[in-house]
């Protein structure tokens, strides 16, 4: 039997199994959760493979900056109909016409990876921990598409990698996407964690504007503890760019707080009323759906530098690019840590 026949047969079995879970899920809801989970995984692998090939072609014609955008759009376009998800974005034109810029958004769960695929504008990049480059499909795509890999164990390499990213932003007129909360919140009410300062340090030193993106609370659509992954609508609103011209590091705290307050106000306005009742504290070790590491602990983030104690006293208007890179690493996104660990999910389910 040819290798292609084996691959197609295996794929057919997986698809049939996935569809069976979704059908049986009409009787027992957790099975539908796992069925949709597998659909997301298959879609991710498919789109990562597509992104790998697209990145090669785009690089050959000098359009490498479109690689992550085209793969992200493919992921959201394919996956959303499969799981019954609708994403409505207000003021999306702001993302298209403002470059370069620092784009920030609230970070709720692993589902944000899918939302990123819909939000992501052209010529925008993300950062990820260096170990992800070895993940099949996803890692291959990330390596060739221009992802900035951060070695958390080697500060020098991390700073050098982000130094190159900052220079690329200026040279190629591109954006960078950062989750300022630094980790997933898993809130079931419209709220956000305290913002870290890396993204705002970068914006002040570069003079680039900050574009806040607010994602409504979607715990009614996805909730790991309750094994919910169901059809629904998620509203997203892009806010007006926040200028950093004329702002110094003395204004940093005000910039961070006023931006967070503005985003939180919109978050409460656009979130469904039904999800505004808190359900208690979040336990990071029991909330993993699409994480390669199997944890949502803050120590699993890309950045490990203490933004307040180490970086802030040293950053001035004359700060060089390496120091700005160090500040950015504190708020580098961890949303690309998305490879599912099916055995971990099933283990958690049987344990509860």
Automatic annotation (TrEMBL):
GO MF, one example: 1-acylglycerol-3-phosphate O-acyltransferase activity
EC code(s) of this entry: 2.3.1.51
Region (Disordered): 324-343
Catalytic reaction list: a 1-acyl-sn-glycero-3-phosphate + an acyl-CoA = a 1,2-diacyl-sn-glycero-3-phosphate + CoA
Pfam families for this protein: Acyltransferase
Domain Phospholipid/glycerol acyltransferase span(s) in chain numbering: 101-218
UniProt cross-references to SMART domains, sorted A to Z: PlsC (SM00563)
One biological process term in Gene Ontology: phosphatidic acid biosynthetic process
Keyword match Membrane: yes
Regions crossing the membrane: 6-28, 37-61, 131-150
The keyword Lyase is assigned to this record: no
Keywords from the named record: Acyltransferase, Lipid biosynthesis, Lipid metabolism, Membrane, Phospholipid biosynthesis, Phospholipid metabolism, Transferase, Transmembrane, Transmembrane helix
Gene Ontology CC terms: endoplasmic reticulum; lipid droplet; membrane
The family this protein is said to belong to: Belongs to the 1-acyl-sn-glycerol-3-phosphate acyltransferase family.
Annotated PANTHER family: 1-ACYL-SN-GLYCEROL-3-PHOSPHATE ACYLTRANSFERASE (PTHR10434:SF11)
Record remark: domains: The HXXXXD motif is essential for acyltransferase activity and may constitute the binding site for the phosphate moiety of the glycerol-3-phosphate.
Listed name of the protein: 1-acyl-sn-glycerol-3-phosphate acyltransferase
């Amino acid at each position: 039997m040819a290798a292609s026949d084996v691959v197609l047969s295996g794929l057919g079995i997986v698809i049939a199994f996935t569809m069976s879970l979704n059908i049986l899920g009409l009787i027992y809801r957790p099975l539908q959760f796992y069925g949709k989970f597998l659909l997301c995984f298959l879609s991710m692998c498919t789109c990562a493979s597509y992104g790998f090939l697209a990145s090669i072609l785009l690089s050959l014609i000098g359009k490498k900056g479109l690689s992550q955008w085209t793969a992200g759009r493919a992921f959201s376009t394919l996956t959303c109909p499969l799981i019954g998800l609708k994403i409505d974005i207000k003021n999306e034109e702001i993302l298209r016409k403002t470059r370069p810029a620092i784009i920030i958004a609230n970070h709720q769960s692993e589902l944000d990876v899918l939302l990123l695929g819909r939000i992501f504008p052209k010529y925008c990049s993300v950062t990820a921990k260096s170990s992800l480059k070895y993940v099949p499909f996803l890692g291959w795509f990330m390596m060739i598409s221009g992802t900035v890999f951060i070695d958390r164990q080697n500060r020098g390499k991390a700073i050098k990698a982000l130094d190159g990213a900052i220079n690329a932003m200026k040279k190629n007129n591109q954006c960078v996407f950062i989750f300022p909360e630094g980790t997933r919140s898993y809130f079931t009410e419209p709220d956000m964690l305290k913002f870290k300062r890396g993204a705002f340090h970068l914006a002040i030193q570069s003079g680039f504007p900050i574009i806040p993106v607010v994602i409504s609370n979607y715990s009614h659509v996805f909730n790991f503890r309750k094994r919910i992954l169901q059809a629904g609508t998620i509203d997203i609103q892009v806010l007006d760019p926040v200028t950093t011209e004329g702002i110094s590091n003395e204004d940093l705290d005000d910039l961070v707080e006023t931006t967070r307050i503005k985003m939180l106000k919109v978050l409460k306005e656009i979130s469904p009323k039904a999800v505004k009742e808190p359900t208690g504290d979040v336990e990071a070790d029991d909330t993993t759906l699409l994480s390669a590491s199997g944890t949502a602990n803050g120590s699993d983030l890309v950045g490990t530098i203490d933004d307040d104690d180490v970086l802030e006293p040293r950053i001035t208007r004359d700060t060089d690019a390496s120091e700005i890179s160090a500040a950015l690493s504190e708020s580098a996104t961890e949303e690309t840590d998305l490879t599912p660990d099916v055995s971990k999910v099933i283990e958690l389910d049987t344990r509860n």
